From TrEMBL, chain A:
One of its GO terms (biological process) is D-methionine transmembrane transport. CDD domains: TM_PBP2 (cd06261). It is found in: Cell membrane. This is D-methionine transport system permease protein MetI. Residues 25-219 form the ABC transmembrane type-1 domain. Keywords: Cell membrane, Membrane, Transmembrane, Transmembrane helix, Transport. One of its GO terms (cellular component) is plasma membrane. The chain crosses the membrane at residues 29-53, 74-95, 164-188, 200-219. PANTHER family: ABC TRANSPORTER PERMEASE, D-METHIONINE TRANSPORT SYSTEM PERMEASE PROTEIN METI-RELATED. Pfam families: BPD_transp_1. Belongs to the binding-protein-dependent transport system permease family. CysTW subfamily. It is a multi-pass membrane protein.
TrEMBL record, chain B:
This is ABC-type metal ion transport system, ATPase component. SMART domains: AAA (SM00382), NIL (SM00930). PANTHER family: AMINO ACID IMPORT ATP-BINDING PROTEIN, METHIONINE IMPORT ATP-BINDING PROTEIN METN. It comes from Holzapfeliella floricola DSM 23037 = JCM 16512. It holds the Pfam family NIL. Gene3D superfamilies: 3.30.70.260, P-loop containing nucleotide triphosphate hydrolases. Coiled coil: none annotated. It catalyses: ATP + H2O = ADP + phosphate + H(+). Keywords: Amino-acid transport, ATP-binding, Cell membrane, Membrane, Nucleotide-binding, Translocase, Transport. Belongs to the ABC transporter superfamily. One of its GO terms (molecular function) is ATP binding. CDD domains: ABC_MetN_methionine_transporter.
Amino acid sequence: MDFLKQYIPNVFDNWHGDYGFEGAISQTLYMTIISAIIAGVIGLAVGLILVITEDGAIAENKTIYNITDKIVNVLRSIPFIILLALIGPLTKIIVGTTIGPQGALVPLVIGTFPFYARQVQNALVQVDKGVIEAAQSMGESNFGIVCSVYLKEGLPDLIRASTLTIISLVNLTAMAGAVGAGGLGSLALDIGYKRFQNDVTIVATLMVLLFVFVVQFIGDYITKKVSH
Amino acid sequence: MAQPLIQLKNISVNFKNKERDVLAVDNVNLDIQRGDIFGIVGYSGAGKSTLVRVINLLQRPTGGEVLINGEDICQYDAPKLRQTRKKIGMIFQHFNLMMSRTIAQNVAYALKGSPLSKQEKQDKVNELLDLVGLADKKDTYPRQLSGGQKQRVAIARSLANDPDILISDEATSALDPKTTESILNLLQELNKKLNLTVVLITHQMEAVKQISNKVAVMEQGKVIERGSVLDIFATPKTSLTQSFIDTTTRLDATLKGLAQQDNLKHLKPGEQLVQLSYSGDTTDEPIIVSLYQKFGVSANILYGNVEILQGTPIGSLIVILSGDAIKVSESLEFLTQSGVRIKKLNLADFGGDN
Ligand SMILES: Nc1ncnc2c1ncn2[C@@H]1O[C@H](COP(=O)(O)OP(=O)(O)OP(=O)(O)O)[C@@H](O)[C@H]1O
Ligand SMILES: [Mg+2]
């Protein structure tokens, strides 16, 4: 302990409290988990819409496909840091504040769901068309095909896509730190960078990395579990 | 004749896209009776798959009516159509099993909406897997099965709702000859045991010959020839049908071989090379003997083949007839009257004169 204190003194000084590591870790977890859930639901729905309305798919619909496709493309091409500023007013309406972990939720969700929707689409278009046709020939409804074929057959790829998305979400939470969202990103910027406490920056970075590794590990484990 | 189980009336399917229109099925009329094993043959792109996908409306026709048991299913609403589809099983070239489900779960999937109890469903699955000889593979995943085994699972699955009809779209095309044979035998057995009507799409005429009782030949979206397998094999009317039939015999290869023989290149005067085809009762008559006895014409047999189709022998002989020219033509006359089909052959057509 004393040995560690010698090398990363500022980390110990900044450990406790809402503005220290304790707070930052829980804020990062909060932002990641809440926006992963919300962006996950929206992204999955949008991804599914893209997959089933595509040409030749079970609910083929050019208009819906094209509109959804355009929205996803536009949202994906806005740099996140600009998105943060751009949707400030919207954020204020939805969650009542533009700062702190809560204020980051709206931009995080909007920055993440289009990415996830595309990942979902890429994962699910690979589901064998023949299997879908077989399900149809057995009298399965479109809703049944989504639940029992797309989501079930595509599950391993879906989990891979989710892992990737959560990791990129962790990155975004760090970036959101730039506008006072809190979390490990804020800590690294506000204390590590602005007060020249490099040890804080390094340890915050290592924690983000650790977080990413854990997500990747769990993702790989589940993917393996559900692949046959 | 009884009400056909499946009636396709003036069916057309037109695929429209930006560059071009494809008339994949062109005004097809087809009646399939209960208990038939109805073969549909044709080369790739002929429209076979599109046509049969119309039977369960996986493909809506752009024109025409689809009658199942006399009812136009195009008029059905979605739930009723789904109910109807359960009574029409379908198997595919690439099996289309769900990789994330075990064999038993794959079969059980077809029973999802059925009113059976959990236990009854389980019994049904076991019974079906028994029927296709895969009871011991119950809990394995499709990835661990061979092609033939996968197709058996697909067959079990397609039978889960006790269908009246089984559509088989190239179901044996990805299998080796021996496995193909066993799958075809299984289909035939199911046809007999369950009075299952089978629609057998294939480009292997051999499969049709083995188990079908009726056959339709398709080309460019049209049915160009149809009839009982016996009639079609005995008296094909189009050259496409003939070429499909030839793939099931060694005739082509034989003729090519014969064309290389010197003594056959230059037949003597009074010698005539002919192919004799006959079916049914004709076979029993000692025709070769009677040619000699009645006309003094001798027949030198170069090739002979007899096959049993639907219990009826179909024979094919290639012979050189020799004797007095007038007697030879009289003998051919006699053969025609006895129901033998005659085709005069010229070996030059088979590459003899090069
Ligand atoms: N969804 C589609 N859109 C456009 N054209 C199609 C479509 N499906 C089939 N076709 C065209 O319709 C024609 C008939 O195709 P189909 O698949 O019915 O032939 P097939 O006889 O089953 O051939 P194969 O033996 O290769 O399976 C082909 O020219 C094909 O390109
Ligand atoms: Mg086909």
